[in-house]
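Contributing: when you submit paired examples, paste them exactly as shown. First protein:
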Amino acid sequence: MSGHVKSYAAVDLGASSGRVMVGRVGSDSLELTEAHRFVNRPVRLPEGLRWDILSLYGGVLDGLRAAGQVDSVGIDSWAVDYGLLDGDGRLLGNPVHYRDSRTEGVAEKVWATVPAPELYAATGLQYAPFNTLYQLVADRLTGAERLLLIPDLLTYWLTGEQGTELTNASTTQLIDPRTRGWSYDIAQRLGIDLELFAPLRQPGDPAGLLRPEVLEETGLAGPVLVTAVGSHDTASAVAAVPASGERFAYICTGTWSLAGLELDAPVLTEESRAANFTNELGLDGTVRYLRNIMGLWLLQECVRAWGDPDLGELLREAAEAPALRSVVDASDPVFLPPGRMPERIAEACRTSGQPAPVSPGEITRCILDSLALAHRRAVEEAQRLADHPVDVVHVVGGGTRNALLCQLTADACGLPVVAGPTEAAALGNVLVQARAHGLVGDLAGGRELLTRTQPLTRYEPRGDPGRWSEAQARLVRI
C-alpha cells in the first residue's frame, strides 16, 4: 500500500442483518473487511411489528469493539423508519417497522388534502404505503419532541448529538428535491410539525464524537469522529457504483431492487408519477431517479418457507428450469407482507393464465425471470422518462452473488451488466468518510478507485430479446 492509510468503520444496517465493516483507504488502495455481522430480527408485539432497536444498537457496539481503532465511524440503514424521543431525549418506544399495517388506508386520507399529483410535483417521491409522511399521519405523536431516522437515532446514541442526514431525509416525502430543503407547504397542509426533525446534515458533515461511555464499552481510544455519510443505504450503494461517465443505469440488489439512473435534476412529470419513479437525493447534488422493485425478498421468503435449503442447489435447479415459462409482477404490493410466498407466487401465475410453478427450482426460476423482467422495465422506462440513454447496467449489492440473476438481467435489458461490488453500501459509506478526511476526491474519483480495487464481473446479453417482450406482454393486463 502506498501513502497514508486510514481506517473507517462502516455500520451498514439492512432489513434482515446488520454489519460493521472496516475500510482501509489510501490514495491507491481500498480494502474492506467484515468485523462483525448480526441479525436484524423484527418483533411482532400486540401493538404491531417493531424493530428491535436496542438489539441493533448492541450489535453496533459489538461491531465497533471488533473493528478496533478507527479514524471515523459512519452509519447507513434502510429508509423511512424512525424513533421518537421525549423532551429529555429518551426513546418513547420501539420504532415501527415499515411493513406494519398501521398505514393501510392512510394515503387516501392524505390525498384528500394534497392530491397525489400535487404531492409528487412537490416532493418527487413515489407512492409507497410506508413513506414516512404516511407513517406520521398514522402515528400518535403524544409526548414526542424529536423524530430521528434510524441512522440518526443510532448516531445520537453514539455521540449525544442530533441531526437529520439529507439523503435519508429525502425518503420522508417531506423534502423538495429542487431546493434540497424541507417542503414546508406540504408539511403545513398535512399538520406535520417539521420542528420534530433535527437540523439537516449533508454527507461528509461531522456528526459528533463517540461519547466517553461508548469509548469505554468498545475499548476505542478517543477522540473518534462520527461522520454523516449517505445514511440511506441506497445513497451509499449508488455512491459505490463503479461507473465512468453518465451513461449508466444501476440496480442496487438485496431485499429490494432499486433500479434507475443518477441525474442532475429531478423528474417531476405526471408521467413519471404514474410510472412510480422516485427522486431521492444523492451525493454532490445528484438525484437518484429510481423505482422500488420487491427484489430478493420474494426468494428470501420462499427459502424461509422451504426450511432454508441449500441456495447453490436451488439456483442450479432454477438454471435448468424452463426459461420465462411463468412470470409475475415483482412490483405488485400483494407480495409485500411476509408468509406463504411460494403459494402466493403460484396463485399469481394461475390468476394470469400461466402455468403455476410447483417445485422450488421452478418457483425460484419464476422469481429470477420476474426480477430480471422488472429490472428491464425500470431501466427502459427511466431512460425514456428522463431522456437519459445508457450503455451499461451496473448491479451492486447482495444480488451480485447471484450469477443467474445477473445474466438474466443482461439478457432482459439487452445491455452489458457489470456486477460488483457486493458490499456497495459499506464501500460508499467508507468513501464518504475518506472524502471528509481528504483521502478521496469527488464522486468520480471514488468510483475510479473502486474500479481499480474491487472485483467486478461482466455479463454480456445473450438470447432472443423478443422472448422478454413476449413475457412482459403477459403482465400488461392481468
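Second protein:
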Amino acid sequence: MNKADALNKMGYYNEARELLEQMNTEKQLESDTYACYLFHTIYMSLYNEATIPQQKHAYREKMAYYTKQALQHAQPDTYSYISNYSLQLQYQGKTDEAINLLEKAYQNDKYENDKARLEYSLACLYLEKNDTVKGRHYLILSSITDLKNAKKVYMSLQSLAMLLYYQGDIERAYIYISRALEDISFGKARYRFEDLTNYLPIISAGNRQRVTEERKTSLTLICILSAVTLLLIIACFIIYKKNKRLNEAKTTLKEQCDQLRIASEHLQQMNQQIIEKDHIKEEYIGMLFNLCSEYIQKQQTLYKQLNRIATSGHLSDLSKFISEQQGKSEDLKTFIHQFDTIFLTIFPDFVKNFNALLRPEEQIKVKEGELLTPELRIYALLRLGINDNSKIASFLHYSLQTVYNYRMKMRNKTISDKKDLAVQILSIKS
C-alpha cells in the first residue's frame, strides 16, 4: 500500500492500482480504512486523467464504492465520517445535502483542525454547482487557513489561481500559482509538480498576454499623454501670445484713457473758462448798455442845452459852456467805479486772492471809499484776459509807461517766480 501510494504521487496511477489489486482486496477493505482511502485516491487520479466519458463514469463508480466502504469504518461525529458521507451524497447527485452537512460541521468548533479541508470541500461542491462566487469565497478561506497553518503542500491556492485565471484576473492568478510553486518546491513535494506544470503554461501565457496588453496600453497612454502635453504647450504659447497682446492693448487703452482724462480735464477747464467768460461778458455787456444809455441821455441833454444857447444867439455863453464841460472828469470816474463794481461782483475775493500771491509785507490795502487800486485794476484786466499793455493803458486812461511800471512793481513783490504772476492771476476763480 505504501508503494502504491508513492506510485500514485509520482503519477503512475495504473501501476499503483495494479499493485493494490495484487493483495486480498476484499479482506483488506474490511479491516483497513487506509486501503479504502488509497483505492479512492488512485481512482480519483485516474478520473482526473481520463478523457473518455465511459472511463470517467467507470472511475466515478469505483470512487463511490470505496467511499461507501470507508464510511463503514468511520466513527460517527468524526471528520472522516463527515467527509466520506459528503462524498457519498455528492456521488449520488445530492450536492445540496452534502453542502448542508459540511456547512454544519464548519460551524462546529469540534472540527477546527479540519477547517481548511472543510473549506476546500465546500469550494469544490459549490464549483460543481457552477456557483463561482461562493466557490471562490471558500477557496480564499481555505488558502488563508493553509497559509496560517504554514502548510507547504495544498490544493486551495492553485485551484483559486485557476479559477481567477478563467475569470480574467490574470495578474492575481499568476501571483498565486507562483506562490504555490514556491511552497511545493520548499516542501520537496515532487509529486505536486506535475499538477502545477499543467497549470503554469496556461497562466504564464495569460500573464504574457496581460503584460503585452498593458505595454500596449502604456504606449497608447504615453502617446496620448505626449499629444495632450504638446497641445498644452501649444495652448500655453497661444495663451501667452494672447495675454501679451491683451497686455499691450491694456497699456494702449490705459494711455488713451489717460489722454482722455487729460483732455477731459482740459475740456472742463475750458468749459469753466467759457462759463466765466460768458458771465464776464454778460456783466460787461450790461455795463456797456448802461453806459451807452447814460451817455445817450447826457448827449441829448447836452444837445438841448447847446441848442438853447445857440438859439438865443449868445456865443459867449456857448464858449463858456463848452469850456466848463471839458474841465469835468466825472464820466471817467463813473466808468472806473462801474468797472470796479462789476469786476468785484464777478470776482468777490479777488483782492484777498491777489494778496495771497504777494509777500506779507507787500500786500495791497485798499483805501476807504475805493474798490480797487490802480495796481489791482491793471491785474483785474489781466484776469479778464486783456494782456496787452497798450490796451490796458487805453482802457484805464493811463500812460503806457505807468502800466509797465505797475506791472514790474507787482512782479517784484510776489512770493514765487516773478514771471508766474500773470499766470497765477488767471487761476483766481470767480
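If you have annotations for the second protein, write them as plain sentences, like these:
The mean pLDDT is 80.
The radius of gyration is 65 Å.
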